[in-house]
Every structure is written in C-alpha cells, then in structure tokens.
Amino acid sequence: MVFSSVIFLVYFLPAFLLLYFITPARFKNYTLLASSILFYAWGAPRFIFIILATTTIDFYFIQLLYKAITEKKRKLFLVLSLCLNVGMLFYFKYCNFFIDNVNHVFGVKQITWIKIVLPIGISFYTFESITYMVDVYRRVHKPLNNFLQYQLYIILFPKLIAGPIIRYHEISDQIIDRSANDTVDNKLTGFYRFTLGLAKKVLIANVMAVKADEVFTMPLTSLTTSAAWAGMLAYTFQIYFDFSGYSDMAIGLGKMIGFKFPENFNNPYTSKSITEFWRRWHMTLGNWMKNYLYIPLGGNKVKNKTRLYFNLWLVFLASGFWHGAAWTFIIWGMYHGLFLVLERVFLGKMLEKIGKLPATLFTFIVVAIGWVLFRADTMMHALVFIKRLFTFNFGISLLNMDNEFKFIFLLAVVFSFFTSFKLGEKIQERIYFSYYNILGNLTFTLIACCLFTICLASITSSGFNPFIYFRF
After folding, report:
1. Does some domain include residue 146?
2. Is the pTM here over 0.90, yes or no?
3. Domain assignment of residue 382, yes or no
C-alpha cells in the first residue's frame, strides 16, 4: 500500500484518523502500532512476520547489550544484532545479485538460486534498527524498556516504506508523549503538507514518469539527442517530485498524529555543487551515512588526504549499493563520490569563482546525467544513452511531446528552482513552516481539499501510479 493509492486515500487513511483521534491518549500507541502492522501486511502479508520477528529479537539483544558488564560482551551483542539485520538485508536484497555475478564470471550457470522477493521498505527499517542499536552501544540513549514502543519506532507506518530515516533519539520523547504536538494547528498544517506532497507525486511525478518510461524503453537505435535529453530531464524531475512528494506526505501524516519528523529535502536542484546537493537531497540518508560510515572511518579528521578522499568515495559507493543490487546503482554511487572528491581537490573553488547561475547549471547537469545511470536497466544501456546526449543527432524522433507534458515540465522547472530567489524562499517558508489565522486556515483548507480531489481523480482515471523508492 502506498500513500498515493485509492485504497489508502479513500479507505485506510480516513478510517485510521477517525479511530486514532477518538482513541484515549494512553491507548493511541496501540492503535498506531496495530494500524502500522495492518498497513505493512496489506502490501506484504508474507513479510510482516519477518519484520515482527527481527524487531523482537533485536529488542532483547539490545537489552542484553545495554546490561552487559564487560566491553567484550557489549561488542558480542552488537555484532549479533548487526549480523541479524545486515544478514537479512543481504539475503533479500543482494543474494540474487552476487549469485548472478558469480555465474557470469564463470561463464556458465554454476550456481542455481531461487529468485528472492524483496520485502517492502527493508532498506529503510534496517537502517533505523542499526541506528538504534549503535546509538545504545555508543550510550547516546538508553534502550526502551517497553517492547511495543520499540516496535512502534521501527514499524511506524508514515515513515516505514520510504523514510525519512529517523534516529531514535529524534523522536524518543514523541513515542512516549505527543501531547505537546497534538494541536489543531499541527493537524491542519500536516494535512496541507500531505496534500502538497500528494500533488507533487500525482500531478507532476506521474506525468514525468510516462515520458521517462517512454524514452528509457525506446530502442537505442531510435534514440535521438533531443529524445535523450527529454527522457533524462523527465526522469530527473520524476525522481525528485516522486520522492520529495512522498517525504512531504510522511512528514504531513506525522504532524497530523503529533510527530515531528526531520526534513528530507531542501530544494536540491538549486545546489551550486555536488557537495551542496548531498546536503539537500535525501538528507536523512546523508546524515546516516555520515554518522555510521564516514565518521567511523575517520571523517574529516583523517590527516592523509588520499585516505580521506578514498573514504569519501567509499561511502558513496556504499550509498549506491544501498539503493539497489545492480551495477548501475554502484556506478552511480561511485560517480557522485568522484565528483565529491574532485570538489575537495579543485572543482569546488572553480565553481565558487564562476558564479551562482553557471555553478547551479553545471551541478544540475552532472546530477541529471547521474540519474541516467540510476534509471538505466544495464550499464551498456546507460553508456549508450549518455553518448546519445552529446552526439547532436536531431533527426526524426519517435517521441511525442504533448501539451500536458510540456505544461507539467514547465511547472517542474519552476517549482524545482523556485527558491533560487529570496522571494521564493519566503513563500516556501510561509507555506511549509508557518501557522495561519482563521482566514488563512480556511483558504489553505479549501486549496488542500481541491488538490486532494484532483489527485484522487487523476489516480482513479489513469491507473498509472508508479513509486520509484517502493522497491528499496
């Protein structure tokens, strides 16, 4: 079940909110946990028992870790818990990849292996499990004594499928008591935020997805330069409005039930460098990589610059591998890692000197080309596609650029670069992070209801409603 589906919008969400709001405060967590289990089981009934079992084992392992007297025993339980979570992730997400590559290297099918179905959202909840256990080991916080509260932290449905990736200490107090955030203003602004995210996903990302799919499934012999650029840019805007829209929906849902989730996107396409881009794109993943990979490797304190650059590159290789078990994702991570290293060496100073607009345009093109690697089915497909971008072959294209695509594409450009100007920043701040008087609430409620209705009509009439990060 995804947030932009009819079953969620028409049935699950209204029923959940009604039940949650009428439930007495001391029982709200039980309602939320039961709803989260139902939400996950609806889309992955075979895997709900896996996530329930792993969270149960994790809870007791971490209790033992915290109570262990010697450092040796603490490390033992940490390793056992890490092996459980990383092992599950490896089995479901990467086994097929490694078996296929071993068979390819040997040239014949040496090893047979069943095709394993990937549990929904496994990468996200595995990372949250790891943050919890590592932070307990580091004594950042104490472990929960209440098992159901721990399960709620992991399985909480607004952020379960696609994040944000939340460290336990960021919402620990809210799991126990959300009364401070349980206000009418938060419910209303949460609804506005949810609806804006839904509109980004349904009205922009879905339209871009149609064109991106058309181009990326086109025979490479028919791919002209103009078609390649159109497909690349369509996917560039699709993945941004798809994922940031879903994050907006998650944050909005959280606000409606008293949670304050961390922001996950901050206008990444306005970045003037790849370094800045990764401070603005999927920020909770970037923070995870920094705190649990980069800093343990030495972080910026490493004196040997070669080692520093290698660590930086290695972290982004891991980021690429986290996104998917395919060489295209790995090369995509290495590609971004390379540009981050180059910016540390010389490129960063060059981008500062050439000015804001050229630096933003350069960064955007680098990111967009990287998305070709992310979207392509194979490395050969990606390389030929990228080559077509610069062959300047503007012959007859099989691509149909209808008026709907052109209009939505223009909207995508405007909204992606809206905050490049001070006025845009002020408007965004006002819409996303402010509370309103009675007239303002009435106005935004009317707008949100209209957007919600339009999105629902679009979903029911189209039937085309992909979600990129659903498979991660």
Report:
1. yes
2. yes
3. yes
